[in-house]
Specification:
Number of strands: 20
Largest sheet: 14 strands, mixed
Bound molecules: 2-acetamido-2-deoxy-beta-D-glucopyranose
Strand content: 15-25%
Strand order of the largest sheet: 1-2-3-5-7-8-10-12-13-14-15-17-19-20
Order of helices and strands: HEEEEEEEEEHEEEEEHEEEEEHE
Helix content: under 10%
Distance between the termini: 67 Å
CATH topology of one domain: Leucine-rich repeat, LRR (right-handed beta-alpha superhelix)
CATH class of one domain: Alpha Beta
Structural class: mainly beta
Number of helices: 4
Radius of gyration: 25 Å
Shape: elongated
CATH architecture of one domain: Alpha-Beta Horseshoe
């Protein structure tokens, strides 16, 4: 027998742990990550407050699987292969603050109505990366999220979840009044409308992340009111998405004349599969800037968007230049060619009194 195993066996006998499972225990934390578990281990100390079960091969969470561990505050189940949650799966987890189910195979339209009912105190829930994007994209039917199941988590502050091609968030989401950070990942928006996010309107989301959103249908216009339910957002991330800069700028309608910390529009003009030529030579116009111009924003990122030119009274004219701390417009393709642009930039520079970083590097020919 290998010396290490012998030592482990000896240790197990002495400490009376059922070490067949070989979790690593330190104080109140049980690390059972990457141990090949196919079920929730039932032989860990009852007093643990943190249980790490990521990267195992669990496919199902059965009835009362965690009842024994009712002191748990943090439970990680990321990157297993979970597709089935019993309706009593989380029974007993009344203290739980953080639950991660990232990277499993859950169906957001089929949660048992009461499955999250015990989680009255939960603050952070990660349900992202459970649906996969199957290219080529097939027009799927509307995804009706199991809103009743979500409605129990009245203290939820942070939610990360997939966005289906066509999503319907029911009235159960109106109960999430404490929601602050909302991330859609994977984000497969196909048909965003003014209705899509309407039932988030009672929450107070300040950080909204639609980074890497894939848009499969790029129509001429986009409904500028899509983000109205999120009008308290101060940090908006649309980076690396397929919105196109023109549409992304339209989506700023609800934030007119508001104060924001960050607008991240880095590479919002990724090519679409259907039209690889998707507008990657963009001339900024005054109309495109009509909403952004009015926002008092600290950090503005518009890098890598194929901007080739800016019309007068557009990219360099802002109502609140004093708000800027960082501006990043690198990796575009424009020069300050005409005198008018040059004058606008000079004027802007003299009014951006709080500016710390202006990144205008990399101007490809
Ligand atoms: C948990 O165990 C895994 C596998 O041994 C290890 O990679 C990981 O760093 C551990 N995590 C913590 C927080 O100790
Ligand atoms: C995950 O579960 C699905 C069925 O839900 C199965 O087809 C697949 O082989 C499983 N994958 C792994 C890596 O176990
Ligand atoms: C929520 O978003 C804010 C702003 O980006 C960030 O500072 C904070 O860490 C986020 N919270 C979590 C738990 O991700
Ligand atoms: C988008 O959704 C709206 C309302 O839900 C519907 O009327 C419209 O036909 C849909 N458009 C596409 C392209 O699916
Ligand atoms: C936005 O914040 C204000 C002030 O904190 C609050 O009264 C209002 O209900 C919030 N609105 C939304 C949509 O969260
Ligand atoms: C909304 O969130 C902001 C920032 O976290 C906070 O200042 C404000 O009081 C909140 N408003 C409500 C109604 O909860
Ligand atoms: C948004 O989510 C992406 C991953 O999906 C992450 O890399 C990025 O940091 C997030 N943005 C913010 C502002 O938290």
């Amino acid at each position: 027998m290998d010396c290490k195993i012998l030592l482990l066996v000896t240790f197990c006998i002495i400490s009376k742990l059922a070490c067949a499972d070989i979790c690593e225990l330190s104080a109140l934390f049980a690390n059972c990550s990457k141990r090949g578990f196919s079920e929730i281990p039932q032989n860990l100390p009852e007093y643990i407050t943190q249980l790490e079960l990521s990267e195992n091969v669990i496919t199902k969470i059965g009835s009362k699987a965690f009842k024994r561990y009712d002191k748990l505050l943090v439970l990680h189940l990321a990157n297993n292969n979970i597709s089935i949650l019993d309706r009593d799966a989380f029974e007993g987890l009344y203290e739980l603050k953080v639950l991660s189910l990232t990277g499993n195979r859950l169906d957001h339209t089929r949660y048992p109505n009461n499955v999250f009912r015990p989680l009255k105190n939960i603050h952070e829930l990660y349900l992202n990366r459970n649906i996969r994007s199957p290219p080529p994209f097939e027009q799927e039917k509307t995804c009706e999220y199991s809103d009743k199941a979500f409605s129990w988590m009245v203290n939820l502050k942070i939610l990360s979840i997939d966005l289906c091609g066509s999503s319907n968030f029911g009235i159960g989401f109106l109960k999430l009044t404490h929601l602050q950070n909302l991330t859609f990942d994977n984000c497969l928006a196909c048909n965003l409308t003014r209705k899509t996010f309407n039932n988030f309107r009672n929450s107070n989301v300040t950080v909204l992340n639609l980074s890497r959103c894939e848009l499969y249908e790029m129509s001429e216009s986009i409904d500028a009111g899509i983000l109205y339910p999120f009008s308290n957002v101060t940090s908006l991330d649309l980076s690396n998405s397929y919105f196109s800069l023109k549409h992304a700028l339209q989506l700023l309608l609800p934030f007119r004349n508001k104060k924001m910390d960050m607008i991240n529009f880095h590479r919002v003009s990724r090519n679409t599969r259907s039209s690889p030529e998707n507008p990657f030579k963009i001339v900024i116009t005054s109309e495109m800037m009509q909403f952004l111009r009015t926002i008092c924003v600290k950090t503005l990122i518009m890098s890598y968007n194929g901007i080739v030119d800016a019309k007068p009274n557009s990219l360099f004219v802002f109502d609140h230049p004093e708000c800027f701390e960082n501006i990043i417009i690198s990796a575009n393709s424009f020069w300050l060619e005409n005198t008018l642009q040059y004058i606008e930039v000079l004027k802007l520079s003299s009014t951006m009194i709080n500016l710390r970083l202006f990144d205008y590097s990399y101007v490809p020919a």
